[in-house]
Design brief:
Elements (H helix, E strand, L loop, with lengths): L2 H10 L2 H8 L4 E4 L6 H15 L7 E5 L2 H13 L8 E5 H13 L12 E2 L2 H15 L5 H14 L3 H7 L1 H16 L2 E2 L1 H14 L1 H10 L2 E4 L7 H11 L7 E6 L14 H7 L5 E4 L2 E2 L4 H9 L8 E2 L5 E6 L4 H17 L7 E5 L2 H13 L4 E2 L11 H20 L3 H12 L5 H13 L8 H17 L8 H10 L5 H9 L4 E5 L8 E6 L15 H15 L2 E9 L3 E2 L4 E2 L5 H5 L4
Parallel strand pairs: 1-7, 1-8, 2-3, 2-6, 4-5, 6-7, 9-10, 11-16, 12-14, 12-15, 13-14, 15-16
Antiparallel strand pairs: 17-18
Helix pairs in contact: 1-3, 5-10, 6-7, 6-9, 10-12, 15-16, 17-18, 17-19, 17-22, 18-19, 19-20
This protein binds adenosine-5'-triphosphate.
The site of adenosine-5'-triphosphate (ATP) has 17 residues, from helix 1 and helix 3.
Length: 580
């Protein structure tokens, strides 16, 4: 039996999943953690591509982060989906750049958009802070920058901007002028252009509908209002209209503070021209964990589990954070000697600072640990992940790496886009095979050889303009590493993972240790609006639902800052799940 048939059979055993799988027309699935929304989305897409969508037509599947896109791609590969020119899986921003803005620039009389350059995050933040300083020298730049970013992501109306004050509007104008002077756009600017193109030009919608008669959207709750408008323009045009299959969970929305509107998903589900399905079975966690998670979802249909047992405990650490870290070390030791693999244990922290501290404490205790500090390191994206996967395959081969050569070649062709030829495949394979005996040589030499094999052409593509700067960062980070070291980092085997609560979304581990569950950290003392506190509460909920078997929550009831001790008690969410 093929993987696709086996996956379809599993969906048949779950009435709600089956309803969503067999729905004709638009469908939106509200799905709590671990309820199989990714499985449903990928199985449905693989089935549609194999049975309903005839070439040259295809499908587009969009999600928010590179990590999620990567996971979707891998799952599609496992389901045996063949690549085809009109089949897109990737982030929303890359979809807009590669499939909406660049190809239609000439057709809509805006040739300057054919090769737009996206500013790196560092570059756009630097320009924004300069603009604020020029327009608003006495302001608290952090708050002003946050508000400008928020308004731009939200595509705020003139009245909303007016509420923020003249100085802030001036700073935003300066910022946009700076981008323009340098021929750059940021992501909000890209979304705004895409909204104009799809809303104002029927030809754009018609061509996109012809190429992608089916649109699959993952993590709908985190779409910004502009992205929501793009999706609606493509799917709910009465003349054309791609069929929408969207999944998401309003309770896992974590980016409202950036200007997204989690309620857009509930609004979408309430439309009468689509079928809305709510999933309730959680396949990930044991019953005890599901019971606690349900306590944070009043008013929703409770999740039900299919695995008894599990354990949830609050651990009081009167000595503050150092005490919490020590207890974390002890618990990891117990779990590991009880048979849990280190990479099945995760330590979740509310901030980067706590991640750094706990990483340090674990290292001092001799526990192998993986923490990706995105401030100092490169970010995972389609290019850096491909390089890591290629390095891993080359150095360790199929068995250990977990990658198949065929999957790497698919990723390679996807990156090369229209310029792919069999010659590029041959060059990649020869680099990979040759490096089987060179794992102790410099990782940067491997990267150079990949460049010569075709990666250089990939990096020059407009469509990957936003991802390419991370490769330069990667090169700087791995300068002193051997290929083997890069591989060990990419494999993450036999290491405890330390991760922020925000980045833990979409991941799952046997044992989850949540540190810093103190008031002022969860919610953060910086969260000064009800919306921000609601978001912090959702981060706690997301963290709880990452655990399969065992969840431990560490708290002290106070916080120490450089200046004083804050006796603000334990996080209210610990009480909400009845651990206090
Ligand atoms: N009908 C089913 N039968 C058996 N296993 C299933 C079924 N549906 C989902 N699963 C399994 O449940 C686990 C969670 O599924 P999946 O990753 O798709 O959940 P999710 O809803 O995307 O989770 P999250 O939102 O927390 O990331 C996976 O191991 C998946 O294979």
């Amino acid at each position: 039996m093929s993987n696709l048939s086996a996956s379809i059979d599993e969906l048949k055993n779950n009435g709600c999943q089956w309803k969503a799988f067999t729905t004709e027309g638009h469908c939106v699935v509200l799905a709590p953690p671990g309820s199989g929304k990714t499985k449903l989305l990928t199985t449905r897409m693989a089935y549609d591509l194999a049975n309903k969508i005839n070439r040259p037509q295809g499908a587009a599947c969009i999600t928010l982060t590179n990590a999620a896109a990567d996971q979707l791609r891998r799952r599609m590969e496992r389901l045996g989906t063949e690549d085809r020119p009109n089949f897109f899986i990737g982030t929303v921003h890359s979809f807009l750049l590669r499939r909406v803005v660049a190809p239609f620039a000439h057709a809509v009389g805006r040739p300057e958009l054919a090769s737009i350059t996206i500013a790196s995050e560092e570059e756009s933040q630097k320009l924004l802070h300069e603009a604020i300083y020029e327009a608003y020298p006495s302001a608290d730049t952090w708050n002003v920058a946050t508000t400008i970013n928020f308004n731009r992501t939200r595509m705020a109306s003139a009245e909303d901007w007016a509420k923020s004050g003249e100085g802030l509007i001036e700073a935003a104008r300066h910022y946009e002028a700076k981008l323009e002077e340098r021929g750059l756009h940021d992501f909000s600017g890209l979304v705004e252009i895409a909204v104009q193109l799809v809303e104002n030009h029927q030809i754009v919608r018609q061509v996109l509908n012809a190429q992608f008669p089916h649109l699959y959207v993952d993590e709908y709750q985190d779409l910004s209002p502009g992205l929501d408008r793009v999706v609606k323009a493509l799917c709910f045009d009465y003349l054309t209209g791609s069929e929408l299959f969207a999944v998401g969970d309003p309770d896992q929305a974590l980016f409202g503070f950036t200007g997204t509107r989690p309620e857009l998903l509930d609004e979408l589900a309430a439309r009468t021209d689509l079928t809305s399905v709510e999933l309730t079975r959680n396949y990930r966690s044991r019953d005890e964990i599901i019971k606690r998670a349900n306590m944070m979802r009043p008013g929703r249909v409770p999740m039900v589990g299919d695995k008894p047992g599990g354990s949830v405990a609050g651990i009081y650490c009167p000595g503050g954070l150092p005490d919490q870290y020590q207890r974390v070390v002890d618990v990891i030791g117990e779990a590991h000697s009880g048979g849990v693999a280190l990479h099945e244990i995760a330590v979740l922290c509310p901030t980067r600072d706590l991640c750094l501290e706990v990483t340090d404490a674990l290292r001092r205790a001799g526990i192998p640990v993986f923490y990706r500090d995105v401030k100092k390191e490169y970010r995972p994206n389609s290019l850096t992940r491909f390089i890591e996967s290629a390095a891993t395959w080359a150095a360790t081969g199929r068995e250990t790496s977990g990658y198949r050569l065929g999957d790497l070649l698919k990723q390679w062709r996807h990156l090369l886009g229209p310029s792919r030829t069999p010659q590029y495949d041959r060059k990649l394979v020869s680099v990979l095979v040759e490096w089987g005996d060179r794992a102790d040589e410099a990782a940067t030499t491997f990267l150079d050889e990949l460049r010569q094999a075709g990666l250089g052409d990939v990096l020059g593509q407009v469509a990957l303009a936003a991802d390419a700067p991370e490769v330069r960062k990667m090169e700087a980070v791995i300068r002193t590493w051997s290929l083997r070291e890069l591989t060990q980092r990419a494999l993450r085997q036999d290491r405890v993972e330390v991760i922020t609560t925000t980045s833990s979304k979409g991941l799952e581990f046997d044992v989850v240790l949540l540190v810093g569950a103190d008031n002022g950290r969860m919610p953060s003392h910086m969260s000064n609006t009800p919306e921000r506190r609601a978001e912090d509460r959702r981060k706690f909920y997301v963290s709880v639902t990452r655990a399969r078997d065992d969840l431990r929550i560490f708290y002290s009831g106070f916080r120490l800052t450089r200046w004083r001790r804050w006796d603000d008690g334990v996080s209210p969410y610990v009480g909400e799940i009845e651990l206090l």
